[in-house]
Design the sequence.
């Protein structure tokens, strides 16, 4: 005959499993994946700036501009050369922006090697208004130092065209 202690443990284990199974079944359905925008449909000033930069700089694979929407608290991709517009940024990107940090790293864009530079985006007064991500083609002479110098040049050009955060969201034809 089984001892009462073993029966108690078995009953307790079955109760815990039944409760866990019932709770797992009561979980809400997973949220629908976020709908991300396309550059061709993104008719704001920030996208115009991205499009101009990509057209004028053949060493760029991609440019992304990230900002906090007026009245918002979260950082989002607001303009990009890829179909990822509207994606909410990870908290570390907001922290990088707030701490005025720049990160350079070799990465892949799909299967294409790139040198990525994540750096705060400034306005014409020198205030941080977002985050810029530049993806440079890897190849002869494109190392971290070259990517940093190129991104600094591009950032200076962008800053002259950005009076404030709100301007990035202004509609364009």
Sequence:
């Amino acid at each position: 005959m089984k001892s009462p202690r073993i029966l108690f443990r078995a009953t307790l284990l079955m109760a815990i499993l039944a409760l866990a199974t019932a709770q797992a079944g009561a979980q809400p359905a997973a949220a629908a994946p976020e709908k991300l925008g396309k550059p061709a449909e993104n008719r704001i000033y920030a996208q115009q700036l991205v499009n101009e930069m990509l057209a004028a700089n053949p060493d760029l694979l991609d440019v992304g501009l990230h900002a906090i929407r007026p009245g918002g608290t979260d950082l989002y991709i607001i303009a990009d050369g890829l179909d990822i517009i509207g994606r909410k940024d990870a908290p570390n990107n907001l922290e990088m922006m707030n701490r005025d940090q720049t990160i350079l790293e070799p990465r892949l864009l799909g299967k294409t090697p790139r040198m990525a530079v994540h750096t705060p985006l400034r306005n014409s007064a020198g205030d941080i208004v977002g985050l810029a991500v530049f993806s440079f083609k890897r190849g002869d002479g494109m190392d971290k130092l070259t990517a940093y110098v190129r991104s600094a040049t591009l950032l200076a050009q962008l800053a002259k065209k950005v009076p404030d955060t709100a301007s990035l969201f202004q509609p364009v034809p």
